[in-house]
Amino acid sequence: MEYILIRSKRKTVAIHVRDGVVEVRAPLNMLKCDIDDFVASKERWIKEKLAVLRERFENREAFTLNYGDIVTYRGKNYPVTAKKGNRVGFDDESFFIPPDLPAENVKSACIQIYRMLARRDLTEKTVKYAKVMGIDPANVRVTNAKSRWGSCSAKKSINYSWRLIMADDDVVDYVVVHELAHLYEMNHGELFWARIESVMPDYRDRRLRLRELHRRIENEDWD
Fold it and tell me: What are the helix (H) ranges across the chain?
């Protein structure tokens, strides 16, 4: 099996599979034959990972969004509809956009609506839970982050990916509380999780549901 070998001052061998490429990181003095044997022993796992990545790539390539399709907002499904005029928005029944847009513009219009809703809703939720937790964030921002649902800076700024607004309300609330807890504890230690649990005793279940959304979005092209 072909792979990219990276040697460094490490004690163990690690295999990373990303973007269809197998990368092996090994100690400086490890024999190449031993590395090959290790990779061979993990061949089944590697092939399974490559198959998952290939399927994900194909799903993303096939992803389109058009009039009549369904989008998810705060865990509920809404159709994308055409509405006369130049405005885009959400009317509690649908994501409405101007008529006769090409498919790529339909997706861009829906992202614009998602961003608008995320700024409003995530700010409101952050203010609500900040009062409950007795904390005062300096700022709330919505970003295009793809690898994180949220983040917290040392300057007490809370950032969220607009994609989070697709999640159920319970899941969104978990991410909000998670990031606010970082204003007390800038780590994921015991005190951090205890603070979250004091506000949200069922946070573990909500976290699992967030992972389910992550798996779904990985198969959709929202770039």
Answer: 32-41, 43-62, 103-133, 169-181, 190-199, 203-218
